[in-house]
Amino acid sequence: MKKLSFAVSVLLVTFLVYPSFAQMGKGAGPKFYGDFKPVAGAWAEYQITEKGGKPVKMKIAVVGKEGNDYWYETVMETKQEGRIISKMLVSGSPDSASNVKRMIFKNQNEPAMEMPVQMMQMSPAARKEGTKGKFADKGTESIKVPAGTFKAQHLQYQDGPAVVDTWVQKDVAPYGIVKSVSKESEMVLVGYGTGAKTLITETPQKFEMPQMPQMPSKRK
Predict the structure, then answer these.
(1) Rounded distance between C-alpha atoms, residue 70 and residue 84, angstroms
(2) Residues 57, 66: Cα–Cα separation, whole Å
(3) Which are the contacts of 117, defined by CB distance < 8 A and separation ≥ 6?
C-alpha cells in the first residue's frame, strides 16, 4: 500500500505540477524563463508565492556530470507535503522532455524511485513544448530580492493572455533568474552559491506501473 501511495504521488507530481512555475506551488520543477547554463555544483534557492497562497521554498542545483550530461536536482518543501526531490540527467534544458535521459523522485522518507522518462514526455508540459510566445527586452534594472540587490536584465515573456516578467543575472546559475512575476505568482531569489551535492544518495528502485485487474471472461 505504501508503494502504491508513493507511485500515485509521483504521478501527480509529473502530470499535474510540472507545467510553468506561474501555475505551481509545489512539485518536481517549474518552467524557468531563462537560459539553462549548467555549472557543476551551482545552486539557487527561491521563494514562490502564489496569489492567495503561502510561500513555498524551492532549491535547484546541478549536482553532477556524466560525460556531456548533467544531473539537475529540484527540492520542494512545504509543511503539508513535506520534502519532494526530483533528480534528472539532462543533455540540455530540463524544460524540454526530449533532453531528459533519466528521472528519479524521492518523496519524504519513502525510497527513491527511478521513473520511466516516457512519463515526462506524456505530461501536459511536454505536450505544450511546441508552443512559443514572444520575448521583449526591457533593459537593465536594479532589482532587490532577499538574496541581495542585483543589476539584472528585465525580460518579458508573453504567450497569449499570459505575461511573465523575469529579471536575470548571469552570475546566478543555472538559469540566472533573480525574480519572476506573473499575474498568479511571484518567485524571488533567496540564496545562491556553489558546492551543491545530491540529496538522493541511495540506489533508486525501478518504478513498476501498477497492473490493472483483469475482468473475468464471460461464460458462454
Answers:
(1) 20
(2) 28
(3) 97, 100, 101, 102, 103
- The predicted structure's pLDDT at residue 71: 97
What does the DSSP assignment read for 113-147?
A: EEEPTHHHHTSHHHHTTT---EEEEEEEEEEEETT
Residue closest to 106 by CA, chosen among 28, 4, 209: 28
Beta strands across the sheet bearing 185-193: 134-145, 148-159, 162-168, 177-181, 185-193, 43-50, 56-66, 69-78, 82-90, 100-107, 113-115, 205-206
69, 103 contact by CB (below 8 A): no
Q: What is the largest CA-CA distance in the chain?
A: 78
pLDDT value for 80: 75
Backbone angles phi, psi at 90, to 5 degrees: -125, 150
List Cα–Cα distances, 138 to 8, 132, 163, 165, in angstroms.
Answer: 42, 19, 13, 9
Counting beta carbons within 10 angstroms of the beta carbon of residue 216, is it exposed (0 to 12), middle (13 to 18) or buried (19 or more)? exposed
Positive or negative: CA dihedral 7, 101, 95, 123: negative
pLDDT (tens digit per residue) in 59-101: 999 999 999 999 999 999 877 778 899 999 999 998 888 899 9
- Which runs of E-coded beta strand occur in 3-123? 43-50, 56-66, 69-78, 82-90, 100-107, 113-115
